[in-house]
Amino acid sequence: MSRHLILDNPAVRRAGLLLTGMAVVVLAIMPIFVVERGQEGFVTNSLLFSFTQMFMMIAMASSWNLTGGFTGYVDFGHAVWFGIGAYGTGVFMTKVGLSFPVATAGGVVVAVLAALLIGSATLRLRGPYFSIAMLATFVAMREIIRIAKPLTDGGEGMTLPPYLNRPLFFYVTLILAVLVVTMTWWLRRTQFGSTLIAIREDEVGADMRGIDTTLHKITVFAISAAITGLVGGLWAYQNTFIDPDIVFVERRTLDIIIATILGGLGTVAGPVIGSVAFYWLRDLMWSHFLHYHLIVTGVLLITLVMWVPEGIVGSLSDRSGATPLGRLLHRDRGARPTTSPADDSDSDDTRGGES
Amino acid sequence: MNGSALLEGRGVLKRFGGLCAVDKVDFQVNEGEIVGLIGPNGSGKTTLFNCITGVHEVDGGEILFKGEDITDDQPYQIARRGLARTFQVIRVYRDLTVEENLLLSRQWGEVPTIRSFTRADRSLHDKAAEIADFLLLGHHLYDKAGILSGGQRRLLELGMTLMPDPDLILLDEATSGINPTLIETIKDRIREMNGRGLTLMLVEHDIRFISDLCDRVIVLNYGKKMADGTPDEIKSDEAVLEAYFGDDGGSDDA
Fold first, then answer.
1. Domains of chain B and any CATH numbers
2. CA-to-CA dists, residue A205 to A199, A200, A294, B54, B161, angstroms
3. pLDDT tens per residue across span A183-215
4. In a domain, A17, yes or no
């Protein structure tokens, strides 16, 4: 079968895992070498801040990937959970006077409840209709937060008790990213995980095989909302100030979708690789092409979608026959049919011998 | 054979716009039987299957399975009652392995409890392996279904219907696009499954396949039931001969 592809080789996978583990260890000891402002050194507080943002992106992209990648429900309003998590944390801290951990937990609970409520309506829609409904949900939520002035202070925004400890946020988000990725890896291997893939590939078929698809969709949606809500809470506390326009930014959803697709939709490693690549790429664009970084980013994205539609991971694993880059990298495979179920009938036994 | 009615339809009616795809059809499938469902293209065979399995909401009549009314059940509820099916257009999950495909067909037993967040029980893995062997797919157990040939995918679909130990299996053109050797294999397997007490209902265009296997054949034409009897009776029925065998014997159906 398709063992000759780079990422389908167990040794390569093990090496990748080992490298990732080493990267995590290096990252974990990095804050020890942090230098104060004005001092010479590589590890600055702003570098820690950058990594913190990247870890958040990894966690959010992985959680978006659960619905968008595994289950096939492309959510254009995913940042709504980030916003609810952020505002939940903000309201519980400033209006109720709870401590940060309790307030964030509260924010996550609110995000999950909202996801159960909103998901049970929007998840009945499919394809672009679901995507648009979620975008609408996102925009509506921003206005609701603005209007709910007694609770959220509306457009004036809210100031959280300041807590400026860069290494702490660095560690918390690092651990969160590692946990979330490990969880998606585990989830993919469980019965729940394969059910999600089944829903993506053929929801009606899954239904006829006895699977309550709605229940599965809502469950994964809530898990996804919980993770992103938690990130939102952390972000709010780190930023110490939230208002509807800096919390509910369309760009945030877009970024994690781009990162996931760049890395490989529906794969465990995809959101991680994609987030790392996209985060630093964007950073590079900002610092070198400040005035036209969006144009450069745009051209880059179009190129990616045309050449690597299955993402970095997808192009290196056994689905690569379908992508231009994949074909380029693995010419020996030729154009193996990967799609049509009607490619059928010829020689039933020839392939059997290969495995 | 000739046990009590396992599946029963009374005046099943399904309209698509002005077209009556299934026109007040009465039918019965008894425990232990293999019943064939034949008819020219567009005669409503697959539509009837879709009505039984809850894919289509019927516009009239009722469907009973094991004596219980399943007319308004959701597809997944009907499947859980022990009624499994295959599809005219193959529906296996290409991104899942053969084993995962098989396990999937009875994961509903664990959902929505916390156990669905674990891997399936050892006994289920064993069962999946056993079924894969039974259908000559044992050596592909850990391969993605996407690499299987068309015929192997048909066998896998058959295996997926076996996983939940159903009482009745509906096979929708299990032999279309399959080479003759494999058709014989499928035939053997169906006989063996029937020998173990499983009831089957088949939509099929291959008349030899039907007459070899079936105890009874139901003929549909323009959505109406036009005959119901043993294969021999059907073969000598003038009206059936004209409607069915006089028509082209293609393989497409609504």
1. 5-245 (3.40.50.300)
2. 8, 10, 42, 12, 12
3. 999 998 888 999 999 999 999 889 888 888 988
4. no
Chain A residues with CB under 8 Å of B140 CB are: 352, 355
Upstream peptide bond of B112 is cis (omega within 30 degrees of 0): yes
Q: Do A194 and B140 touch (CB under 8 A)?
A: no
Query: Distance (Å, rounded) from C-alpha B57 to C-alpha B50?
Result: 9
Q: Three-class SS string for B121-175?
A: CHHHHHHHHHHHHHCCCHHHCCCEHHHCCHHHHHHHHHHHHHCCCCCEEEEECCC
Residues of A in contact with B117 (CB under 8 A): 187, 190-192
A330 is in which domain, residue-wise? 6-10+44-336
Closest CA relative to residue A92, chosen from A204, A254, A232: A232
Contact residues on chain B for A215, CB-CB shorter than 8 A = 111-112
Q: Which residues of A touch B147 (CB under 8 A)?
A: 1-2, 351
What phi and psi values does residue A73 have, to the nearest 5 degrees? -105, 100
What is the helix (H) or strand (E) element at residue A117, kind and residue range? helix A100-122
Domain count, chain A: 1
Q: What is the ipTM of this complex?
A: 0.81
Which value, in Å, is the radius of gyration of the alpha carbons in chain A?
22
Q: How close does chain A come to B55, measured CA to CA in Å?
A: 8
Does the residue A39 lie in any domain?
no
Other C-beta atoms lying within 10 Å of the C-beta of residue B157 = 24
The radius of gyration of chain B from alpha carbons, rounded to an integer in Å, stands at: 18
Once rounded to an integer, what is the mean pLDDT over residues A143-153? 93
Q: What is the CATH number of the domain that holds A64?
A: 1.10.3470
Q: Which two tokens stand for residue A26?
A: 């290096």
Closest CA to A268 of A208, A199, A182: A182
Closest to B104 (Cβ–Cβ): which among A195, A266, A341? A195
Model pLDDT for residues A19-53, shown as the tens digit of each residue: 999 999 999 988 888 887 777 778 888 889 999 99
- Flag if A190 and B116 touch (Cβ within 8 Å): yes
Q: What is the pTM of this model?
A: 0.84
Using CA atoms, how far apart are residues B162 and A171, in angstroms rounded to an integer? 49
Point out the residue among B80, B85, B100 whose CB comes nearest to the CB of A194. B100
pLDDT digits (tens, 9 = 90+) for A268-307: 999 999 999 999 888 888 888 778 877 877 887 788 778 7
